[in-house]
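Quick start: read one record
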Amino acid sequence: MDYKTIVTIVRDYETEQSVLRAAAAMADARNGHLTVVCLGIDRTQPGAYYAGANAIALQQTLAEAQAEAQAVEEKVREALGSWPASCEIISVTAQIGAVGPLVADFTRLADLSVLLKPYGDSRSVEDVAIVEGALFGSRTPVLILPPGVDTAPRPESAVIAWNESIESLTAVRAAMPMLKASKTVNIAIIDPPSHSSDRSDPGGAFAEMLARHGLRPDIAVLAKTMPRVSDVICRHVRDIGADLVVMGGYGHSRFREAILGGATRNMLEMAEVPLLMAH
């Protein structure tokens, strides 16, 4: 299945316009549909106000959030005016605590969400909540782009961070259109468990599955010689010159799955190339 419905969320146009262009280019190249959600966030904390001031404060902050969303929408419409792709632009507002469910609602029918890396300069907890909503709330695959990427990613070399989990396999299936377009696919396995069913041939069965799709993967078994798994993956990506990472996205637990887990958060902080995640 190709990416025929692509969704991107724009909260800060100046920071996120590169991702908007990349998402539009992906939809255009695939003759698909792009949905752009222009988000204004109401940052009111009702409990911080005296009872008599609540209504006035809420009305004012809601109006500010609506104006914020409308200003973003105007810039998005101007930027996409010349794109031939099918496009829908929506302006919405949400309180900070409701960002995740709102994003999940808009992304649940998409084939792919395209978002900017949520950590770094000009990024905030609101951007993390957007990624969490798309990744955990809708189970839609998410393509995270580093700053400056403003064209449709066309990976030459992809790395799959493989740990035999359902999340990893879900990400690989979601990434198949990109993997098939890549010239090389590398399966990175870090310290494979000695009790695994394929301990004598780590990743062998998985590589056979990919080969049936026309891919020619190679396998790299890596030792965890650095403190974090994400450190090892990022070093490997740099070593082989990869330009796409595919991996599962994880939460701390089923109970708190809207909170990014350590490996997921670390990769989102460190990734220098596009990162496709699924949960």
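The chain has a mean pLDDT of 90.
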